[in-house]
Amino acid sequence: xxxxxxxxxxxxxxxxxxxxxxxxxxxxxxxxxxxxxxxxxxxxxxxxxxxxxxxxxxxxxxxxxxxxxxxxxxxxxxxxxxxxxxxxxxxxxxxxxxxxxxxxxxxxxxxxxxxxxxxxxxxxxxxxxxxxxxxxxxxxxxxxxxxxxxxxxxxxxxxxxxxxxxxxxxxxxxxxxxxxxxxxxxxxxxxxxxxxxxx
Length: 199
Hints:
It catalyses: nicotinate beta-D-ribonucleotide + ATP + H(+) = deamido-NAD(+) + diphosphate. It comes from Fictibacillus macauensis ZFHKF-1. The protein has seven helices and six strands; from the N terminus they run E-H-E-H-E-H-E-H-H-E-E-H-H. The protein has helices spanning about 15-30, 55-65, 85-95, 105-110, 120-125, 160-165, 180-185, and strands spanning about 5-10, 35-40, 70, 100-105, 125-130, 145-150. The chain has a six-stranded parallel beta sheet with strand order 3-2-1-4-5-6. Helix 1 (about 15-30) links the parallel strand 1 and strand 2. Helix 2 (about 55-65) runs antiparallel to helix 7 (about 180-185).
């Protein structure tokens, strides 16, 4: 039985913090792979920036291409309308009945699991890996399903912060993977290209 980590998010853009979380989960839980799953239409927010789904797919592909334990899943792009985690996991469990799935979430998401769509049904399909960081500490929970805690060193950078720096022409070297920075520059994403002095 393969142990698969499912790492969902808007990845707008993917950065070193995302890579660190995925790698820490892979190692701590002896996962066979981590499947990165960009959300096509997050149900609770609109995507920021001037990026298309195709742009974000290209950015994730570039971010993970040097790690053979990471792969890209486009499952959420197969459906129209809002995408809920329970729908995604039901599809995955049907397609891969011999796999064991671990769903990787940040502390902010773990602290509000009771608000998720069909959370009790979802909790029967996956083991949650909840990331505990200094900036998003986990609160004590009493969920009737498995939520495993994983401490990850803090990488206090968000995709919002990165988008702002890109729009202002500020440095993102060592914040974004070099390949992701190149794709952003070539495509002219997030407003303006970086200043040459920041490349």
